[in-house]
Amino acid sequence: WAKADGKARWTLFDPERNAHRVTRQALASGLRPAVERGEFVLDYQPLVELAGGRPHGVEALVRWRHPQFGLLTPNRFIGLAEEDGSIVQLGRWVLRTACRQARRWQLDHPGVPPLFVSVNVAVRQVWDSDLVADVAQILEETGLPAELLQLELTESAVMGSAGRPLRALRALSDMGVRIAIDDFGTGYSNLAYLSRLPVSALKLDGSFVRGFQYETQTQTQPQTQTQTQYEPQTQPQAQTQYETQGDTRHETQRAARHETQCEARHEGAPSESGGAPTDPADAVIVEALVQLAHRLGLTVTAECVETAQQAERLRRIGCDAGQGWLYSRPVPAERIAELLASGRGTCQADTEGSGFGN
Ligand code: C2E
Ligand code: MG
Ligand code: MG
Ligand code: MG
């Protein structure tokens, strides 16, 4: 591209850019062997019913323990894996690992309602691989009931899906696997179209939830919120323990996410008190979306729920479930096992903003 655009030529000599490109290449070429070498790990983040505060599922989120670059979040490598097709192999590994883990939890904790596992699926897995056969085989091999598996696809993966993707969605749905639309609201958001697909859940993109910090009528915001925006006000106890076990991965993840997850959809003018922008239109749209989704038989899970106020408002407008730092960051499987073993199986989304372990 540098050749094609004279103005960009200088970037060839920009050491930072060059380093970035080298890293990209290093990462891309290492993807395939890394799957075989077992360098990927899954963390799990609870999905919590807003009415009652009980976790009913977990989302599996992949990380790469890179021997050279340390622990990498998916934003660093999923795009590359999609480009070179290694996502198919990686995706299969994620699916198998997540299903095996969910089955393990189910067997180890017969006394509590089983958690379903929600797995992200890339577009190419639907188009370039036999996703249906893979899922069928993995369910068979792991013994996980199909009802305990949810697949998350983005709108762009299913919009305009005729032929192969539609047949795949139908077959998966017939097997009892649930299909959720991830990051809902960031694409075309054609609900009428989605409702005709075998889709049963929407995951409302975090950019909508950002505007949910405060009541729409309340345009002024406490100054302190500016600093705490990305932090739950009270760290869940379990999480604190985890982070003090010498595992600093979540700090790295947070830095990466800060730029990429839950960004507001539009900057808007900061409120007069200098707090984060709050858009009343977001609240109106989300409320309407939730109502419409329910009438179309879809459940709604909100992403990036970071504060108790957001959870409470989402609950009041009828949103079914939430996921976010308020409840728990993504954690290793053992932490989910501890949650199940504690017998509580609940996270209290109370007004103090406390999460697990309280
Ligand atoms: P996603 O599927 O929308 O997952 C939610 C992301 O939001 C995760 O980032 C999660 O850690 C982050 N998050 C959760 N709660 C909060 C919160 O309260 N505040 C903030 N700021 N962020 C929160 P993560 O783990 O970095 O993953 C990023 C994306 O990478 C995912 O977005 C998904 O699109 C993709 N991804 C992750 N694992 C896989 C995978 O196994 N396969 C594929 N194809 N994509 C994956
Ligand atoms: Mg997802
Ligand atoms: Mg999402
Ligand atoms: Mg998202």
Automatic annotation (TrEMBL):
Biased composition (Low complexity): 218-245
Biased composition (Basic and acidic residues): 246-269
Spans annotated as Disordered: 218-277
Residues of the EAL domain: 24-344
Record-given protein name: EAL domain-containing protein
Native source species: Streptomyces beihaiensis
